[in-house]
Design a protein that fits this description.
Blueprint lengths: L1 E7 L2 E14 L17 E9 L4 E9 L4 E8 L6 E12 L2 H4 L6 E13 L8 E13 L2 E13 L2 E10 L2 E10 L15
Antiparallel strand pairs: 1-2, 2-3, 3-4, 4-5, 5-6, 6-7, 7-8, 8-9, 9-10, 10-11
C-alpha cells in the first residue's frame, strides 16, 4: 500500500494512493454494502489520485474464479451536483458476486462507459448515459453473444436502445420505463415498494 495526502490550509487538497492486492481473501464488505456477498479472492491494484475537483480512481483486479475487471472513474466532489465519467471493462465476471445470489451465477464480458450528474439532494434530478460495446452475457441458462446498448436516465425516465445477437439471430431492442417517484427502501433482504 502507498498513500500520500496533500494538505493546504488544514484541508486535504489532493491524494495519491495505490493498494496492491495479492490473493487477498476472506474479506467481506457486508457492513457497508449489505447486498454484496463474500468478496472472492482478489489480486491486482486499486488506486486514487487527484484533488476533490478532479479525483480519479482506477482498478485492475483478477478474481480467483477466472473473472477480471479493470476501469477508471473520474469525479468532481466539490460541486453540489457531482459530474462522473467512467469506463469499466470486464472479462468473465460473475454477476452473482454483485447481488449475493448464486441463482445469478453466470459470466459477463465487455466494456461499459458511463457519464452522469449526481444530485445527492435530489436524486431524481440526476442524469446518466450508459453505453456498452460488444457485451456478452451468460446468465440463468441463457446466452447473449453480443449486445451493443445505449441507455439514458433523466427525470424519472429510463430509455435504452441497441442491437442484440443470440442463438444465431439478431434483434433491435428499445425500452422505455418510468420509475416510481418515491421508492421506500427497506433493510437488506427486503424489496422496494
Amino acid at each position: 500500500a502507498r498513500a500520500d495526502a496533500h494538505v493546504e490550509g488544514g484541508r486535504v487538497s489532493g491524494v495519491d494512493a495505490e493498494l496492491t492486492l495479492a490473493k487477498w481473501r476472506g474479506a467481506t464488505l457486508q457492513g457497508f454494502l449489505p447486498w454484496l456477498g463474500q468478496v472472492p479472492v482478489l489480486s491486482g491494484t486499486i488506486g486514487a489520485k487527484g484533488a476533490g475537483d478532479a479525483l480519479a480512481t482506477s482498478w485492475a483486479l483478477a478474481f480467483d474464479d477466472g473473472g477480471a475487471s479493470q476501469g477508471d472513474v473520474r469525479v468532481d466532489l466539490t460541486r453540489a451536483v457531482i459530474p462522473l465519467q467512467g469506463h469499466v471493462s470486464m472479462r468473465r465476471l460473475d454477476p452473482s458476486l454483485l447481488v449475493n445470489d448464486r441463482r445469478w451465477h453466470g459470466r459477463a464480458s465487455g466494456d461499459v462507459r458511463i457519464e452522469a450528474t449526481i444530485d445527492p439532494a435530489r436524486v431524481r434530478a440526476s442524469t446518466a448515459t450508459v453505453a456498452t460495446d460488444d457485451l456478452a452475457v451468460t446468465l440463468m441458462g441463457y446466452a447473449v453473444e453480443r449486445a451493443r446498448l445505449k441507455g439514458a436516465y433523466r427525470a424519472n425516465r429510463a430509455h435504452a436502445t441497441g442491437d442484440v445477437a443470440a442463438y444465431g439471430a439478431t434483434a433491435s431492442v428499445r425500452a422505455d420505463a418510468e420509475l416510481p417517484e418515491s421508492p421506500t427502501v427497506v433493510p437488506s433482504g427486503g424489496e422496494l415498494e
